[in-house]
Fold:
Amino acid sequence: LLPSDFKITVVGLGLIGASMAMALRQLRPAKIWGIDIDPAIFAQAEQMGIIDQGFLDPAQVLPQSDLVVMAVYPELTLTFIREQMAHFKPGALITDTAGIKSRLMAEIPAMLRPDLDFIGGHPMAGRAGAGIGQARTEIFLGTNYLLTLGEKNLPANVALLESIIYGIGCKRIVRLDPDKHDRIIAYVSHLPHLLAVSLVNANMFGVEASPCIGGSFRDSTRVAEINADLWTELLLDNRENVLEQVEHLEETLDSLKESIISGDRQRIRETLVKADQTRRELFHG
Amino acid sequence: LLPSDFKITVVGLGLIGASMAMALRQLRPAKIWGIDIDPAIFAQAEQMGIIDQGFLDPAQVLPQSDLVVMAVYPELTLTFIREQMAHFKPGALITDTAGIKSRLMAEIPAMLRPDLDFIGGHPMAGRAGAGIGQARTEIFLGTNYLLTLGEKNLPANVALLESIIYGIGCKRIVRLDPDKHDRIIAYVSHLPHLLAVSLVNANMFGVEASPCIGGSFRDSTRVAEINADLWTELLLDNRENVLEQVEHLEETLDSLKESIISGDRQRIRETLVKADQTRRELFHG
Structure:
């Protein structure tokens, strides 16, 4: 799959970065290196055998890295690429894993050295918790991987990245326009997170509610266990799309509320039937 | 656990009723019978060995039943008990499994024959799907079981029912005032269902959203696969409490929305941290 001397660097060894390093290792690159701001983290990654070596200073490995996988917050992705521009290996391919894409696709290709190539990526993978301790190679198995391409991407680089993505176990790659990506992600990801957070925060019963909690509350609030720093950044970066989706959800909820207020049995039933059918089509259809 | 000649009838062999029959069977009652409006259902229950025999006509078994477990919709629970009042065995204990309790606790004890006893019950158990085909005895294992007692319940009956509930594998029994029960259930169950339904119905992207869907949307909308007839009844029966919770959720969501509009990074972060901590305390604390 990979050229025999192919070297990879993963920037940021959190849950996604460390899982990515684990999964990429199975593709047998010549070397896989890690960059992290915490030496204890890359020491742990070395001990786990996830990477060959970890570095604090990007300049020590970027000049030898054919592929650089950014696995840090969106803002830091931008800053890192800007500040390290001189150190990337000629012809290197850079990709990222951030959950928002418009801003990165607007800024990164525009500032990139002409010999470098950037392809935006968003693995639809994750698990509860955070950090290298939660990393698992299996989080990519059977998942979708979204790509946002720029105008100047080399077809060979796109093909290589796609074969790597399938190689780590992803089921399907979907290419999306970055603006469309962020608008849809506001609905399928950012909105459920906001609802989960609000549902937990709306508790007016305190611990008295605990024994009454069943599966619906548990599942609906799972993602309220949230990385507050990352999500503050995501919500603000994607602010307009997030607000559009919150407004639309509120209208949809208000409409159902009105049917309950007016006791319109038929309209309530139709609303529930519609949701039931749509949910089944989405997940079992 | 049970007296040697103890006979049980389960009314309604859907998911909960059939699971209850399965679980009760393990307590070795002298007989366990089922009542259903569909002879094909109780024929299936007989074949599965869940019940000894099924009946269309309650008058054939109620006069011999020491315990009657109602596992039908709230409205039908009321109607059935009213219409069958003359047929219950003298001294019988009746309980139900409906997800709302105020109305049932207001009406059933008031109309009950003086020799009968009714204890309201709400198993916090379930699974995806519906009907006898989805029934499993394990759905009760480790779950909470809510009870609403009336003023005239015999202590011996309460003790018997509680020992039966622990006997089928429930972990904890919580006694609640019926009004409090319905108010809390509006928050922990009815509200998550309304949000799941609205989240699914708010899709403005159609199937284009599908490849972007990850775990947060999947879990947040699980209960949008909903029994529309049952839930129309539950939402309308519990209308005032449901509306109180929807309003409060909307206020909570609006507050978060305002922080996003104003770009108040600190307030967004605090809101997320609060939800994160509260969710952890509720489920892991």
About this structure: The mean pLDDT of chain B is 96. The longest strand of chain B covers residues 117-123.
